[in-house]
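User: Please fill in residues for this 163-position structure.
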């Protein structure tokens, strides 16, 4: 894959020059049709534009080529989340969780926060609490996790932590 073209496309995308970025992503896709990444990037771009059908198409194609890419699960989940289809959103997050090791904490954390939030929105508070408790085992100093556990009455804040 042409790394310079990829870098330029990502830069244009980040600057919201979506049409120019899309053109480069499509060129990369044609030259690297076996690679999942141009499909992922096109799906992400379409998600940024609010074109959920196109985003789903590219992201699902990307996932078929590489089921180990956690950000694809996160973006597929986001498409359904924005459409208020929380069951489908949760389904992709649960699938993604199977491909990630808790030792890969940053990816695990992103996925778990979204999954727990989806459980909270759908009223499955025990499942949300379980995920936050799992995260707490790996990072007992994450104040966001502590806050959500407190919010779910799963942890009490002592005076030292409140400060």
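Assistant: Residues filled in for all 163 positions:
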């Amino acid at each position: 894959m042409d790394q310079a073209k990829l870098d330029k496309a990502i830069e244009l995308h980040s600057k919201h020059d979506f049409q120019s970025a899309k053109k480069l992503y499509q060129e990369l896709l044609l030259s690297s049709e076996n690679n999942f990444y141009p499909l992922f990037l096109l799906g992400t771009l379409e998600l940024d534009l609010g074109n959920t059908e196109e985003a789903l198409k590219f992201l699902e194609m990307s996932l078929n080529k590489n089921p180990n890419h956690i950000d694809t699960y996160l973006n597929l989940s986001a498409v359904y989340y924005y459409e208020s289809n929380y069951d489908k959103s949760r389904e992709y997050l649960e699938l993604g969780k199977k491909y990630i090791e808790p030792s890969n904490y940053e990816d695990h954390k992103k996925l778990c926060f979204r999954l727990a939030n989806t459980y909270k929105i759908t009223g499955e508070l025990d499942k949300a609490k379980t995920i936050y408790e799992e995260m707490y085992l790996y990072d007992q100093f994450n104040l966001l996790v502590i806050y959500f556990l407190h919010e779910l009455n799963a942890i009490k804040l002592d005076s030292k932590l409140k400060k």
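For context: The CA atoms of residues 42 and 49 lie 11 Å apart.
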